[in-house]
Amino acid sequence: MSSTPHDPFYSSPFGPFYRRHTPYMVQPEYRIYEMNKRLQSRTEDSDNLWWDAFATEFFEDDATLTLSFCLEDGPKRYTIGRTLIPRYFSTVFEGGVTDLYYILKHSKESYHNSSITVDCDQCTMVTQHGKPMFTKVCTEGRLILEFTFDDLMRIKTWHFTIRQYRELVPRSILAMHAQDPQVLEQLSKNITRMGLTNFTLNYLRLCVILEPMQELMSRHKTYNLSPRDCLKTCLFQKWQRMVAPPAEPTRQPTTKRRKRKNSTSSTSNSSAGNNANSTNSKKKSAAANLSLSSQVPELGALQSCSLNPGRDGALCHSAALTPTGQFKEKH
Predict the structure, then answer these.
(1) Higher model confidence: residue 32 or residue 24?
(2) Residue 93: helix, strand or coil by DSSP?
(3) Residue 107, Cβ neighbours under 10 Å: how many?
(4) DSSP labels for 272-326?
(5) Which terminal residue of the chain, N or C, has fewer Cβ atoms less than 10 Å from its own Cβ?
(6) Mean pLDDT (whole number) for 242-264
(7) For residue 55, how far is the Cα from the chain centroid?
(8) What is the reported pTM?
(9) What is the DSSP letter of 313?
């Protein structure tokens, strides 16, 4: 098969000066094509390491992924960080999806100093479902991507706004069960909500709890501290940032000519200095007497909680602060 000028790897026969540039710099959406290919190479044995490698290849370390859509109870907007992105993609396949890819049409590109923005108002997320029935779901919306302008060209921000979706059932399946009204009624029901499976929606709701806890989990993983100690340390550092005075700019010392002072002025100055020092020492002693629990009431009523997700990604335990200032465990 001969290459054509439309092939991203096409090489002109007229020499290297007519050769096409690297597709990354010419077509940023080519990275979406590569991501689709990587998702197609997924197998049933793909574990968390595979999904983490997938996210590392296509997303920056500080990347964010945002989904906006409207359900029966109102509009929803979920934003997750880089550590939760691999699990998001894996939940799509756990909900019965066998194939996932994105189609971008008439996208607009804008180049900045350190980033490239791709705005596609006609983006379609196509998912092929194998269960509970063979269905093709086309989720349409607007996709805005921000890539880093470097050799890796990874995604920094991902924002997908879902407008509508369609669930397509093959005619052959309908003809096969034409005489069975129960099966036809089952086929007429939607298997997704706005193109998203229940697995994905439940995970996005769980991320509302998990996202603020990323600092605790990172500290627990790095320093091997207990959940109680992680929470105490984070609260103490937050308290330190609240009470710490703003840093004053350094002043350059000015050289002034000394003037001889009489004994009366020096005596009055020394007495005033002693009074100021005594006042400062009283303030320091009063501040030292204030306990940490009075500044941060949460520290005095901490209960141990578990940070390990349970089955289906749900938390085993969580803690809530009651009006009396104590933590109440929820199972």
Answers:
(1) 32
(2) helix
(3) 18
(4) HHHHHHHHHHHHHHHHHHS-HHHH-GGGGG------SB-GGG-BS-EEEE-TTS-
(5) N
(6) 62
(7) 12
(8) 0.62
(9) G
